[in-house]
Amino acid sequence: MPNFANNPDRTSWLHVDKNSDFPIQNIPFGVFLTRDDIITIGTRIGDTAIDLGALHQLGYFEGIPLTEDIFLQDTLNDFIADGRQTWRAVRNRIADVFDANNNTLKNNAAHKEAVLFRLDEIEMQLPVLIGDYTDFYASKEHATNVGIMFRGPENALMPNWLHMPVGYHGRSSTIIPSGIPVHRPQGQTLPHGAETPVFGPSKLVDFELEMAFITTDANEIGEPIPIEEAEDYIFGLVLFNDWSARDIQKWEYVPLGPFLGKNFASSISPWIVTLDALEPFRTKGPEQNPKPLPYLQSSGNNSFDINLEVAIQPNQSKETVVSRSNFKYMYWNMAQQLTHHAVNGCRINAGDMMGSGTISGPDPSAYGSMLELSWRGEKTVTLNNNQSRKFIEDYDTVIMRGHCEKKGTRIGFGEVRSQLLPVFEILKKNTNLRSQTD
Ligand code: MN
Question: For the chain, what is the mean pLDDT?
Fold first, then answer.
């Protein structure tokens, strides 16, 4: 089915600012709570949210084989499971309904009242019930930088790194949407020079600038995914802040890899931008030397040119952009990651999420974590309010943004924004609870 929705010449009868991440060519998918407290699946054009449940009930998806309640759900999982032909048909229809030359909905005030919302009337939710979550480690610059810091320059890249997209299984239970604050985690750390660990709040809380892709049902257990087919199973992408506690991570990670230093929170942007919408922004990835094994060899442009940035906003202060990177710096692309993930027969389901790993570029201004920007705390990062940071401090807000731009068309992800709060004070809370019941 042709991808009409990407036509760069199309304009919408809905207002779209010139620098909007959400022109009619984007048509992302998300889940939101409406002003009437109803949860629905929706999309967004400019700063208008569109209730797809209402649009479907009013008959605007006639002719597309969709179940009646496909958009009246609190997650996108069933829609994602419907597969690429359905996603494409729905995006094409939305593009048509909101095309500047189509008056059907435009001239129907009652329908518009039921379907359209201002952004301040809705509350974005987690768009997917995430089944399994895997995080890769696919930026060569990031892996090299961290390797130098943790093991020295001789052993920076482990011997396997140039031969496979290295990853680990994380936890989906603590993946949260933009806007939800995160508490500083506590845990075990080994203070510098000490021989025994201490317990307490992490002193080195960090962000990781990542993107994550969401899959549809891809295979049966035992069945690998050929690399030429891998992208067919990718629904879309979000921005992904993989919050990390570096001191906890450093003490715990040998030999089984990340654990409590990572699974206290990861924040995602709420609108899933489809792989279809990103089609015009394909680009060649980095040269892979040595050549990967045959099952990981892909032809064509499997990387995507997505500009990324990270800003830190201290409490009651303006933000400072501390990193500018790009998704195209990833050494291992998404098709290679998904193919490698399933090559042993691991089952991939609709609603699984795969993090890219921290996306650092070659220039220090493109490093995707404070660990690298402050080089393990040896340097300071200056903010524009004359404060400085080595890691993230309590009440700082971390904001990540991403967009593609080509020949006047801009497709973006909006932002993922989350504030770091102090350690969750369970003792204090219990004391309060007790005094209330006394
Ligand atoms: Mn990560």
Answer: 95
Say how far apart CA 417 and CA 399 lie, in whole Å: 4
CA of 438 to the centre of ligand 1 (A): 45
Distance of CA 20 from the midpoint of ligand 1 (Å): 28
CATH superfamily name and code, 4-124: Fumarylacetoacetase, N-terminal domain (2.30.30.230)
Which member of 142, 340, 341, 403 is catalytic?
A: 142
Q: Using one digit for the tens of pLDDT, what is the confidence trace for 340-361?
A: 999 999 999 999 999 999 999 9
- Two tokens, residue 269: 């942007």
Mean pLDDT of 308-312: 98
Whether the CB-CB separation of 437 and 288 falls below 8 Å is answered with no
Q: Please say whether the beta carbons of 274 and 29 come within 8 A.
A: yes
Per-residue pLDDT, 429:
59
Q: What ranges do the domains of the chain cover?
A: 4-124, 133-426
Q: Please state the rounded mean pLDDT for residues 376-380.
A: 95
**Surrounding residues of ion ligand 1, Cβ less than 5 A:** 135, 208, 242
Q: Give the pTM.
A: 0.96
What is the CA(262)–ligand 1 centre distance, in A? 7
What's the CATH fold of domain 133-426? Fumarylacetoacetate hydrolase; domain 2 (3.90.850)
Phi, psi (rounded to 5 degrees) for 366? -105, 15
CA 332 to ligand 1 centroid distance, Å: 14
∠370-372-376 over CA atoms, to 5°?
85
Residue 151 is predicted with a pLDDT of 86
- Per the annotation, the verdict on 169 as an active-site residue is no
Q: How far is the CA of 357 from the centre of ligand 1 (A)?
A: 5
